[in-house]
Amino acid sequence: MKKDISNPEDSENYPDSFSLIEDGIDLAVQKEYLRLSETIEFENIDYKRGLKESKKLFSEDIAIKAKKKLLILLAHSGTAESYQIIEKYLRHASGEWKQWALLSLKECRAFLESDLLEVEGGFISTGLGGKGDKFRYFFIVSSKGGLAFSETHRSTLKRAFEGIGQEYNAEIEKIHFEPDYAAIGMFIPADVAVGDIIEKGIRECNKKSDFLNFHYYVTNVKKPTNEELLKYLAEVRRRE
Question: For residues 15 and 107, which has the higher predicted lDDT (pLDDT)?
Fold first, then answer.
């Protein structure tokens, strides 16, 4: 089994209340956001001054690092005013700036909710995002021996994963079939281990016709490129 997962599946590591960023955010952007946040001494920050300087977000003259730092400061101020400012900026942002603003907005919301609800709050972001309280996962299951799936195999696989998805309150987003593998996108609740769903699905498929490899690929960071996918499938074939 190959796993490429950015967040722990153990729900005990989550805060009492958390918000999932539904848009996928590049892992490099998330790491940069955290690294820059760690360089700021928030206890010495004048947040009122930060609010006054927020208009610089919409200026083309501000340096890139200063703009990123300002978004982080607005997030940590955790006020309704700062939330509205970030939200306004987000409506005009694109590319990496949109991802940066999304992280800032979710962090600001977490601080707001922590104060209002008096519980530990936070947000979770993955490369593929999610839906509601469910993470988006992408996984590959392949046929044994590289044999092409029959129509019966495809139907069996589809029914098996749809049924198991309902059992775990998970939701299939898409199933894409190639001759010898299936690529599946699925929204899975935070308290469910993705491996449990995939492995149960494979066992269910193999009950009547032993056609799936038990080795699989799963990620919630980013979809593999075609080159990465072919390399993975070649590795599986070598192990058979």
Answer: 107
First to last CA, the chain: 13
CA distance 37 to 41: 9
- How would you write 82-109 as a 3-class SS string? HHHHHHHHHHHCCHHHHHHHHHHHHHHH
**Residue 168's closest CA among 132, 134, 127, 126?**
134
Bridge partners, 19 (sequence order):
123
pLDDT at 205: 95
| DSSP H or E segment with residue 164 | helix 151-167
Cα distance between residue 194 and residue 216, in whole Å? 12
| Domain edges within the chain | 25-124, 130-239
* Whole-model pTM over 0.70: no
DSSP state of 233: H
What's the CA gap between 110 and 87, in Å, rounded? 14
- Which structure tokens are listed for 18? 């958390």
DSSP state of 127: T
Could you tell me the fold of the domain covering 130-239? Alpha-Beta Plaits (3.30.70)
Instruction: Check: CB of residue 25 under 8 Å from CB of residue 103.
Output: yes
